[in-house]
Fold:
Amino acid sequence: MTIQQLKYIIKIVECGSITEAARQLFISQPSLSAAVKELEQEYGIEIFYRTPRGISLSADGTEFLSYARQIIEQTELMELRYTDKKPARQICSVSTQHYAFAVNAFVNLIASLDAEEYEFTLRETRTYEIIEDVANYRSEVGVLYFSDFNEKVLQKLLQENQLEFTPLFHARPHVFISAAHPLAGAGKVTLEDLESYPFLTFEQGAYNSFYFSEEILSTEPHRKIIHVSDRATLFNLLIGLNGYTICTGVLNSDLNGDNIVSVKLKTNEVMRVGLITNKKAPLGAAAKKYITELKKLIEEYGYTVLQ
Structure:
């Protein structure tokens, strides 16, 4: 075993692919695969499961990764203590549903850093992939919501992957619509009021179940539906087609401009927005700072942060 081999394992997990890890490490894919195979043979374990869809950590691999990270962290601390090396670059990855406040907290995190180097990743992605990212250590923190409808299914999935949900705040559902929308001035709207307008929803790919929908009340019927994959496209369609989407109501004009407004939706449902983390992996300093920035931002928007 070498320190370099341990760094290889960590990079493969971060990338979710041996091919991509090899590209970022500037080595050939066969050389990286051989290094992994040497480790597996040395310790008599299988670190990665290899399938046509890619790779994933085995149970032994998950435990091995924990030790590898500890060794690398201690090695870096020793180098800092006894050499003139500059501090290691800060690394943090977050996977989130399409929430402007999650992006804004990420902006605040980076703005608050006093670091010459860092390598951060922010993924606005599908619900199942958020869970998969945190389970496979590609992200330290995930941001998603629970409702009365989806909680049992999502909790079961989290438990199977040894993940933990920590509530952040509760939000009453709102709709995002164009500032020029005929209903923009309404104090509250119903789904019946919106029936003639296109409903915009984030597509969930292979896991396109109602339980994974980012929009609460996902089982309610809609006459006109448009599936989108990113927030910029969704906002353009809200403006161009007088469409609407269902959300938390937390809207940031610095990121989204003044062309989108938030209107309360008449419903008794509640969105319980929270964080998911891996029980087997302690959070790094940058991830903890991100959570602090997230909580500060939520309070600034007038919501009560849950303890």
User: Anything to note?
Assistant: The longest helix spans residues 59-82. The two ends are 43 Å apart (CA to CA). The mean pLDDT is 89. The CA atoms of residues 149 and 166 lie 18 Å apart.
